Amino acid sequence: MNALQELENRLLASVFRQGERRMVRPLARALSRSGDGYLHLLVPALLALLGARDVGLFALLLGTALLLERSLYWSLKNSLKRRRPQDAVPGFRSLITASDQFSFPSGHSSAAFLLATALVLVYGGPVVAMYLWASAVALSRVVLGVHFPGDTLAGATMGASCALLVASLLGLA
């Protein structure tokens, strides 16, 4: 386990150093904010306003998957209690203050990948763009120093998996 933690510490340091570049920090902050959850409300509303097909189905998938994902997220985060990089790595200081105490899994990453997966399952479209956005949200959390890389990988896997599971139960996947 120590070897895995050492690898995570090295990856964290490498990615975090990218935040020292002039434009990286503001971009990372903006990407991180885009994963705060507002899009989960705005996207269905925008789709409805635009008269998109299957908005009800999309909202059902998104809402049900979010209930499952948030339940898992909260349970894992508060039972595993992995310390955030700032609290776990001596001398490390994150660029922002996290909204909660624990690090694993990344809720921003999970929610972003859940939204991307739900959109792709119902509407198809620019799959690469959706997953690039979700990946950028996850990466921003490491650049800002509030998550280890493994936290974001676990979150991404959990979010996409919740969307796929609910889609399967709804007969979409």
From TrEMBL:
Enzyme class, UniProt record, top EC level: hydrolase
A GO term for molecular function: undecaprenyl-diphosphatase activity
Catalytic activity, as annotated: di-trans,octa-cis-undecaprenyl diphosphate + H2O = di-trans,octa-cis-undecaprenyl phosphate + phosphate + H(+)
Enzyme Commission (EC) number: 3.6.1.27
Record keyword NADP present: no
SMART domains: acidPPc
Membrane topology, record value: Multi-pass membrane protein
Regions crossing the membrane: 56-76, 111-133, 153-172
Domain of life: Bacteria
InterPro entries linked to this entry: PAP2/HPO, PAP2/HPO_sf
Pfam families found in the cross-reference section: PAP2 (PF01569)
Location(s), subcellular: Cell membrane
A GO cellular component entry from the record: plasma membrane
Domain Phosphatidic acid phosphatase type 2/haloperoxidase residues, every copy: 55-167
Assigned keywords, A-Z: Cell membrane, Hydrolase, Membrane, Transmembrane, Transmembrane helix
PANTHER family to which the protein is assigned, alphabetical: DECAPRENYLPHOSPHORYL-5-PHOSPHORIBOSE PHOSPHATASE RV3807C-RELATED, SPHINGOSINE-1-PHOSPHATE PHOSPHOHYDROLASE
Protein's UniProt name: undecaprenyl-diphosphate phosphatase
Natural source organism: Parahaliea mediterranea
Lineage: Bacteria, Pseudomonadati, Pseudomonadota, Gammaproteobacteria, Cellvibrionales
